[in-house]
Amino acid sequence: MSTPSYPLFCLGNPLLDMQVRDGEALLKKYDLKSNDAILAEEKHAAIYDDLKQNYEVTYVAGGAAQNAARGAAYVLPPNSVVYTGSVGADDLAEQLKIANKREGLAEVYQVTPGEKTGACAVVITGHDRSLVTNLRAAEKFEQSHLSSEKVAPLIEAAKFFYVEGYFLTHGTASALELSGKAAAAAKTFVLNLSAPFIPQFFGAQLQQILPHVDVLIGNEAEAEAWATANGVSDPKDLALVAKTIVGLPKTNTSRPRTVVFTQGADSTLVVTSDKPDEPKLYQVHALSNEQIVDTNGAGDAFAGGFVGALVAGKSLNEAVEAGHKMGAMCVQEVGPQYKWPKYMYHSSSISKTSSFRRYASRVRRLDLKPPKFGKGMAPHLWVLIGGDLQGRLLFPNVKILSMEISTGTEAKEVFAVLPLLFTPVITTVNFSGHGLTCGLFANYCLPLLAHRCPSLEDLTFQAVGQYTGLNAVGGMRNLKSLNLGWMRENSGLKSQFLVDILRPLKNLTTLTLDVHFKSHRDISDLYTCSPGVLGLSHIKLETLSVTSRATDGVDTDSLCACVPLFLLRTTSTMVNLTLHDTRVVHPCFFDSLVKVLSQNSGLKKLRIMGTGTSLVTNLKALQRLTQVSVKELELDIRLVDPTARDYSLTQFIKTETVTTRAGRVSANPSIPHPLTLRTLSIPVSEAPEQSDVKGATWGCLKCVAFDGPALEHLTVGLDATFATNIPDQNAKMVDWLTTLQKGPKSTSKLKSLSIFDPKDSIAGMTMQEGNVLAQVLDFLFPSLETISPYCKDHMDRPYWKDHWALLEALRKMCQIRRRGV
């Protein structure tokens, strides 16, 4: 049977750590320093029994090189690391074997009869640890063990060697044999200084082995101790200390010497002998105090990750990164341990030089949706990526993020990736999907968003389901635009929720709401209060968009109570009201809206839109909107009025555009003030045969020209009889033109007219008739700049391309002649 081989061979003092917390009294009692490592003296002999009798002890497999070997095994494939040292024939040694086997570390211990396995008292105070080591069997290691039948082949097959500095206190000859063989075979030998007392008191031993060392690892305290012992001019200058060490004589000249000095949570310094004047500093991603459990073994964990990466053929940069990850993992555990089950950190590492990193840094917009087929990424895979990134952002410069969150497991997948995506520079976030109803969304996602994204200005929710709470939105103080779409009646929703959310949002200018109470009724009547009473006098919206929904199959006589009327009073630019699945059958349907908006003299635009099965069956309801003083009124809702013969769309337009002029009384005395409409859009039916509502006639356009001088933009559908339906039914169009020209001139300011001619009413006109129509249009609207189809999609419709386009050309020719251009 062949002897197994391992690329990494480690040598050190195997120990069992006896770990206790809150050990301030022990430091004083045994004259210990809070962050130090020493060999036990006679005065420390009683500390081990003291710990067992008076403290709650945690037993952890330890020993510096053994800890590092387990760390290297963690990042390497199975059967990559083997370790040796001396233990006793006792239960402690068996516990060490079990721990090593679990973490993939092979061992070839020298078992020393009559000796106890070494122990290390670990006294933890805060984030510091004081180590007091009694080597016991560990210091009985015999050099002959290296040439034993079991160990010698392993040394011969290994490519890398790692020895802890503590081993030099008793086993210098064995360390020299191992390092000498490595140098002679051009293999890599790594030495860890381990503790300040090694260069202080074992300088001679260190001096013997340094010529064979390819990689030297230590921390800032150990570096300073070496510098002080060796007369370096500034012992605290780590770069100078490292440069001095890499410049020392070296046996194996096939590779440069590398010195690595860690500085805890601050950074790691690396200097190589081929570039001694170019030290590299690697920043550490610091953990919060809450994340740090125990710093014991962090340096060994770094060494294990670093050396394991070198064994795996990774670059120096990647090796440092792997060391940082292993150190961070260790300090979040009790003692020198690693997370279990095993996290494949380094083997799944996303290299800083990878094409993905370069691409990810350029991404500005992300749109994440569940896959259409199959399953998405498993939650644990997101966690592995997150662990690999160590808190760094996956797409660090993303500014716009859209996420569709499904239910169940899929939602948890998305929640897992959020910490990787919420960047400080994000300005826009769009959430949608059933997953928004999950309590985890309200209690985890939103608070995380508020905390991570101070630049967030635009936030959207679109969900169908029961409301779960959005209180964290109030913490997003820089929000300018908020869209809340919770499109279902919510039994537990109270109107107070909106007040609580809006109160802290002093920069909000745009608000979109589609959130509804049970049965669309608010029993508190809070929405009818004034903003000042609600503590919202600071809210100055520019645009407010709200949706009124009807209970299924029920006609209502007013807007649903879910519309926050108090916000309409202070909106300055535009109010968008959407009616969903709503039949407007009552003439007073819009009265609550009109009452509030009549108190808002600064509003510029009102838009009423219908979606779903919404329609207006009573045009008188729309007439009420004439009492609102706005510059633009746009109506985009289906009109079906059974009383159309008596109250046509033509009459609606006429009433809509009436205004007081000098010497003329308003045609509608119920209007309390003259209208100042500049833009009016009237809905049209794409299938006029299905609607009894009449379109605009020449008489309607004349009303616009003479009774609506403020109107600048008009969108309207034409009546089927448009071409022949003139005010004077007994006259021809040319006679009507003559009558118009003899009367007062039009002062209309209309600039654009968009029309829809569903019956192609002018299809049969001759060129001469077309010229007369063009002159009428030019007379009625002298400032008109363009006539266009109802929408861009109508450019190829016959009514436009075959007839109205020609009429528009003729009108412009008339205008040119009139102006004498």
Automatic annotation (TrEMBL):
Q: Name one Pfam family in it.
A: PfkB
Q: What sequence ranges are listed for the domain Carbohydrate kinase PfkB? A: 27-342
Query: Which keywords does the record carry?
Result: ATP-binding, Kinase, Nucleotide-binding, Purine salvage, Transferase
Give the metabolic or biological pathway.
Purine metabolism; AMP biosynthesis via salvage pathway; AMP from adenosine: step 1/1
**For this protein, what is the EC number?**
2.7.1.20
Q: What class of enzyme is it?
A: transferase
GO cellular component terms, A-Z: cytosol; nucleus
Asked whether the UniProt record includes Membrane among its keywords, one would answer: no
- Entry annotation: catalytic residues: 300 (proton acceptor)
Q: Which cofactor does it need?
A: Mg(2+)
Q: Which residues form a coiled coil?
A: none
Q: Name one GO biological process term.
A: AMP salvage
Xref: PROSITE patterns: PFKB_KINASES_2
GO MF entry, a single one: adenosine kinase activity
The record's annotation in PANTHER family points to:
ADENOSINE KINASE
What does the sequence similarity comment in the record state about its family? Belongs to the carbohydrate kinase PfkB family.
The name of this protein is: adenosine kinase
